[in-house]
Write a structure and sequence with these properties.
The chain is an alpha+beta fold and 276 residues long. It has 8 helices and 13 strands. The termini are far apart.
C-alpha cells in the first residue's frame, strides 16, 4: 500500500502546485491521504442482491455474475479518473491479455464505478477503449462495466474494505489501487495491489479462488508450490511444500531403484523366475 499511496501523493502534489498556497494545500492532501486504505475482508462475502446498471444500460444484480462455476475479478474505479484508475485498468487488461484463459469462460471481470454521477454510456465508452487496446472486442461479454447509485456503491465498497473519498478541491476521487478476486459464491479470496498485475499472480489467484476448478495439472502443481506473500504483494515459492514434493520425488526414485535391484537379483538366481 505504501507504493500506491506514493502514486496518489504525487498526483495530489501536482494539483497542489497549481494553487497559490502550496504548503497549506499539500498539508491538507497528506492528511486526506491517510483516509485511503484497504481493510481486507478475506473469506467474507459481498452482498449479491445489490443492483447496478451495466454498459448496455441494463439494471442487473451482482448475483448474475456468480454461481456459474468460475471466479470473478472485481475492480472499483471510475471512468473519468485522470490518472490512477486508468493505470489500474490498463495494468489489469495487460495482465489478463497474457493469460491462456478467456474472460467469460474460465473467469469473469466486473468493474463498478465509485462515481454515482457517471452514466452507462460513459461506462460503455471506457470499456470499448480499454478492451480494444488489448485486441478484445469493445462489446466483449467477459468484462462488464457498471455504474450505480451512491448507497449501492458505498455498500459494495464497504463489503470489500475499499476506502476512498471525494476531494472537493480538485474534483477527483482518491482511492487505493487494488483488484479483488472472488469465488463463484461471492466470497473474497484475494486482494492484488498495484498498477501492474503479473500473469502468474493473476493465474494463481484465480485458481485459488476457484478451488482448483480451472487450470491444468501443471497449473495445480505450481499453485501447490506457491503461496501469497503480503510483504511482496505476490505469490512466492513455498519452501515447505517444495520440500515435501522433493521428499516424495526422492522416495519415488528410491523405490524404483530398489525394485530394479530386486528384479536383477531374482534374475541372477533364477533366470526363469520372471519369465511369466
Amino acid at each position: 500500500m505504501k507504493i500506491i499511496k506514493a502514486i496518489i501523493f504525487v498526483n495530489l502534489i501536482f494539483a497542489a502546485l497549481a494553487s497559490d498556497s502550496f504548503s497549506q494545500v499539500a498539508a491538507d492532501r497528506v492528511e486526506k491521504l491517510e483516509k485511503i486504505d484497504v481493510d481486507e475482508h478475506l473469506g467474507a462475502g459481498i452482498p449479491l442482491d445489490l443492483t447496478f446498471t451495466n454498459d448496455r444500460g441494463e439494471v442487473v444484480p451482482l448475483s448474475s455474475y456468480f454461481g456459474q462455476g468460475r471466479p470473478v475479478i472485481l475492480v472499483l474505479a471510475y471512468y473519468d479518473c485522470p490518472m490512477l484508475c486508468t493505470l489500474v485498468l490498463n495494468g489489469l487488461a495487460k495482465g489478463v491479455d497474457q493469460l491462456d484463459w478467456t474472460p467469460g469462460k474460465e473467469f469473469s471481470l466486473i468493474t463498478v464505478s465509485i462515481d454515482p454521477t457517471e452514466t452507462a454510456q460513459l461506462a460503455a465508452a471506457k470499456k470499448k477503449t480499454l478492451l480494444e487496446s488489448i485486441g478484445m472486442s469493445g462489446t466483449d461479454p467477459g468484462w462488464i462495466f457498471h455504474v450505480g447509485k451512491e448507497p449501492e456503491i458505498k455498500t459494495l465498497a464497504d463489503a470489500v474494505g475499499f476506502k476512498y473519498f471525494y476531494d472537493e478541491k480538485i474534483k477527483e476521487f482518491a482511492h487505493p489501487a487494488v483488484v479483488m478476486i472472488l469465488g463463484e459464491d461471492g466470497m473474497i479470496s484475494r486482494y492484488l495491489y498495484g498498477i501492474e498485475f503479473k500473469k502468474q499472480d493473476l493465474k494463481l489467484a484465480l485458481m485459488e479462488a476457484s478451488d482448483g476448478k480451472i487450470g491444468n495439472t501443471i497449473d495445480k502443481f505450481i499453485l501447490y508450490c506457491y503461496h501469497y506473500d503480503s510483504a511482496s504483494g505476490g505469490y512466492v515459492l513455498f519452501a515447505t511444500n517444495l520440500m515435501k514434493l522433493g521428499g516424495l520425488a526422492t522416495l519415488g526414485l528410491m523405490v524404483i531403484f530398489l525394485a530394479i535391484l530386486w528384479i536383477k537379483d531374482r534374475r541372477r538366481h533364477d533366470p526363469h523366475a520372471l519369465a511369466h
